[in-house]
Amino acid sequence: MAVNTGAKQFRKVDVDQYNEDNYQEDVIEDGLDEGPNENEVSSLLQAGKNVDALKVVLKNAPLSTKNQNTKDKALQLTMRVLTSFRSAEIEKAVNTLDKLEIDMLMKYVYRGFEVPAEGSSAVLLNWHEKAYAKGGLGCIVRVLTDRKHV
Amino acid sequence: MSQVHSFGIQPISIHSFNENHNQIAFSPNNDEVHIYKSGGQTSGGWEKEDVLMEHGQRVTGIDWAPKSNRIVTCGADRNAYVWTLDSGKWKPTLVILRINRAATCVRWSPMENKFAVGSGARLISVCYFEQENDWWVSKHIKKPIRSTVTSVDWHPNNCLIASGSTDFKARIFSGYIKEVDEKPEATAWGKKMTFANLMNEFSNGGGGWVHAVAFSASGDKLAWVGHDSSVSVVDAQNNMSLAFVKTEFLPFITFTWVTENSLVVGGHDCCPLLFNYDDTGKVVFMNKLDIPKETQTKEISAMKRFQTLDKRATTVEDSDLKTLHQNTITDMTVHTGDRGSAQKISTTGVDGQMIIWDFKSLESSIQGLRIS
Q: Interface pTM (ipTM) of the complex?
């Protein structure tokens, strides 16, 4: 019997990366995206201006950075902002957002679903319902097709 | 009113009319091309005239050249055939495309002396007829296409080719072939027209495969629809300004220009929609073209009510879509008129139906609809 019949590591090699025809993603320069300023958002939340906090968080979402830390911190901050709203206020807040902000909000809703915390999914479902009412199915399709992840 | 024709239960993936619109060639999502002739006993009825069975695998593109009356078809079997009518029968001529993946789309050039085939081999094959050898020759456009080409379209000058691809970009190449073309003049898209020269590359910043591209009637605007539910237009006369709208509808698969500034799109929402590229350079949604009339609620007997309640937990017997098309619209062409001023367009869908939309009757039946 051959000596290395037990060797199975070769099955874990990703052969697709060695294929020259493989689709290479557009090289985006590692943008100096730092995400939303934590202090600014915290102070807005404490002042009760959670709609403004929402806008700050959505406008400064770190899309083009490759730093996973930045993205995670931004996600935590956004979750804080989203959970700070009462259910009745969500619809009004969504109505103040423009198209790009609604798309960004939907991206965060789905990202938030990926990392469920205690009670967060219920709040997110509420946000999802209101954002869908404004953005339609196209908004959800864009979350799925956009190459820049939040 | 919109004429609805059903060609069976198979989805119709692509269709093309002849010059007089009395014949249609389409593929019922398999390796056959069906040719139907209109007329017959029932007015508006279509009779099967011929079935072209040369492709070994699914037919992915059909284009009927109006003036020379030739049909070019391409398929997943990596081949293309040019069909000519010979004493009532369609005779195929094989075209060697030299691709190692499926062909996805095909278009005759405006002068019908060349055609372009997009393929999964990440290239466009431009084919022209060589008289000395009595043979169709293909030339490739490869760089910098990085993924499958999903759609191609020719500029009115018979030289520029627009292509949409699954690498999320729309591009314009030069398809100038010196054996059959005269040297083209510079257009608003660029001056250098050597074969396979990339003139422009566009993207609207999001993701989403580009499903269809087309030049406007004058060739000065390029539009495309993508899987991110967007419609984008680039205006060469206006400094290559890019305008797009990300809609709230499901993604669009196909579209056609109907005037110099308006386009009709169709896709997974099963309903044709009218968009307008206005003077301020914005793409604006105008109207749905398929507004169902309010159907009177039919009287359902008590027995039927309980039966549906038992079977489906609802008392409403309504599983049909409200739009005319019952499934995705897969292909859309101008039926009467041309891209600059269309009077009728035809759409085919996954529901096996072909519907001809008449703008005059749509303008009168839908309030506020004006196509300009």
A: 0.86
